[in-house]
Amino acid sequence: MLLLSFLILPFLASLILTGIHAYLGVHVVERGVIFVDLALAQIAALGATIAILAGMDPHGGAAYWISLAFTFLGAGIFALVRAHRGRIPLEAFIGITYAVASAAAILAMSKATGETEHLKDMLVGNILAVSGHEVAKTAALYGGIGLFHYIFRRKFLLISTNPKLAEQSGISIGLWDFLFYASFGFVVTSSVAIAGVLLVFCYLIVPSVGAMLFADRIGPRLAIGWTMGTLVSALGCYFSVWLDLPTGATIVCTFGGVLLAMFLVRQFIRRRAPIPLQERETVLHDRR
User: Fold this and answer.
1) How many angstroms separate the CA atoms of 280 and 106, rounded?
2) What is the largest CA-CA distance in the chain?
3) What string of DSSP letters covers 68-102?
4) In angstroms, rounded to a whole number, what is the distance separating the alpha carbons of residues 99 and 110?
5) What is the set of domains in the chain, with CATH numbers?
6) CA-angle at 143, arms to 141 and 145, nearest 5°
7) Residue predicted with more confidence, 118 or 205
8) Global pTM?
9) pLDDT tens-digit map of 157-184
10) Contact assessment for residue 79 and residue 64, using Cβ atoms and an 8 Å cutoff
């Protein structure tokens, strides 16, 4: 009972992260910008590092707004680049942004003596230390962002799955891309403060990838992603306390292990499933 009472707040925080990130992960995977979360999370971490360098409390309101301002800047850049990228893939710009933001954060932290622990927290987080106030505030913020995405879900999904059709329908791709990345920035800035860059990335991508192994439609993907995130969060928190390991890194590794298990199960199911008649005839024809 003592262990359960200790883990209840981190587990609730994990559920909140799972709820919003599994949904956003569907959009990210469909858009083919897998590392946009990692890049925006690192930009948010850079903003927090600048705030620390300026002598601010890393958990204070001023540091949060500086971090959010950096994230909005990144959101504007990504929306602008997608509209005028030409032959250069957006993923290339995202990778460059992540590398530059990471290097800039390291340079800034090198001048903030005695603050290297905060750099570690930005990477792997310390979700065990989350407070009830942070959980409630994050739940309210993500609930508002979730409502915003629900109201405009058709536009966001159309842009993610079929941008050409969205443009032909008269939707302003640049405007709605910025709104998507800006709302994404709110989520990332808050999530990084709780869970760190690596864990935020896993909550976004891994449930969506795991769901794609078993489902093609958005609804089933969300159901599988939310279930996976919930189970991994519970297992990761438990292993962290039981084995006395860093919580963020433990959940990340648990995500990797569960995804590997899901892949093996999917391969087993495919081998056991009967081959459709049309596909069997095609195989026999190719062998001839």
Assistant:
1) 56
2) 74
3) HHHHHHHHHHHHHHHHT-TTS-HHHHHHHHHHHHH
4) 17
5) 2-272 (1.10.3470.10)
6) 70
7) 205
8) 0.75
9) 898 888 888 888 888 888 888 888 888 8
10) no
